[in-house]
Amino acid sequence: MTTTLTLIQPDDWHIHLRDGAALSTTVPHAAASFNRVICMPNLVPPVKTTAEAIAYRERILAALSNSDITNERKAGFDPRMVLYLTDHTSADDIKMAVESGVVSAVKLYPAGATTNSADGVTDILGRAPVFEAMQKYGLPLLVHGEVTHNNVDIFDREKRFLDDVLSKIIANFPALKIVMEHITTADAADFCLAQGDNIAATITPQHLLFNRNHLLVGGVKPHYYCLPILKRANHQQRLLEVATSGNPKFFIGTDSAPHATHTKESACGCAGCYSAVHALPLYAAAFESMNALDKLENFTSVFGARFYGLPVNTSSITLIKKEQTIPESYPYLDGKSLTPLLAGQTLAWQQV
Ligand code: NCD
Ligand code: ZN
């Protein structure tokens, strides 16, 4: 039985660090495990320009330097910025982003799809000049793949996005690098498999470990509520299969998304699971459930770097098979708290 796992230092290709006072919690949590982190731009207001991305990166680095994590982790942590695509983003914005060297990708949120996405794109195929520029420069498009029409059932929104939107983007821009972020369905997994090497997908720990029963049976459990929403068990099973298959199209992206506890435990609770602190033990549990711990390192530490055209990290982390209890909460913002995914529950693995 495997009791120690040494992994090349992982990266997180999809994380929400937020801004302001939140950074003093989220940055050291992320930096404890990850080197490169792709920082989602859905701030209020969103990160729309290269200048805003550079300023946001500075705020993240200031929080890092003020934190009490080790100098080694401070040196390893490398926040990578993303521009939030709007109806007004231009091809010139893309050129400037590429030339800055600070922007690693552009994020497409269909307007209204998720937390802080009100400024998202309303006419996706109207963004052709932007996609052309991104294709030319090799700048990846990260997609939140859900349609947002009121008449489409929330459990069908990912599948409809594949059929109605993503297939058209791919047909029109066949060389555009695209990451299907936080996929949740067998449909998305199989769609990704059917595309060329320029199309990949990230998978969160919660979509590997849970299905909609965890969210809804025996009472509504708001800490399992994220978008895209957890689906049926057969979808969870397909995600486990592709994540552990060794196919380089599928890699880590935690989508760790902090919301203060009281905003999730509410009559209109926010979407997002906070998984940054325990992400690797969570993924280890998922891979172990498939008898596939030997496939974990490529998923957490190799395939994403390769897709983004970056070298793999030279440092490493160790997980040991030793039970730990996830804390009930962390202090967050001014006197508030942050409830992590699986708060108070036991995990078989821990990061040392
Ligand atoms: C994210 C957030 O809170 O910013 N929430 C979520 O449920 N995943 C937004 C997102 O990634 O869709
Ligand atoms: Zn996200």
Mean residue pLDDT: 97
Order of helices and strands: EEHEHHEHEHEHEHEHHHEHHHEEEE
Helix content: 25-40%
Q: In the CATH hierarchy, what is the architecture at level 2?
A: Alpha-Beta Barrel
Derived from helix and strand composition plus strand pairing, the structural class reads alpha/beta
The total beta strand count reads 13
**Strand line-up of the largest beta sheet:** 2-3-4-5-6-7-8-9
Could you please say which CATH topology applies here? Answer: TIM Barrel
What hetero molecules are in the model?
A: N-carbamoyl-L-aspartate, zinc ion
Biggest β-sheet strands, sense, barrel: 8 strands, parallel
Rounded radius of gyration (Å):
19 Å
Question: What is the chains' assembly state?
Answer: single chain
Instruction: State the domain count.
Output: 1
> Could you say which overall geometry the principal axes of the C-alpha atoms support?
globular
Poorly predicted regions are none
**Tally of helical runs:** 13
Strand content: 15-25%
Binding site for substrate: 16-18, 42, 144, 227, 259, 271
Keywords: Hydrolase, Metal-binding, Pyrimidine biosynthesis, Zinc
InterPro entries: Amidohydro-rel, DHOdimr, Dihydroorotase_CS, Metal_Hydrolase
Modified residues (N6-carboxylysine): 107
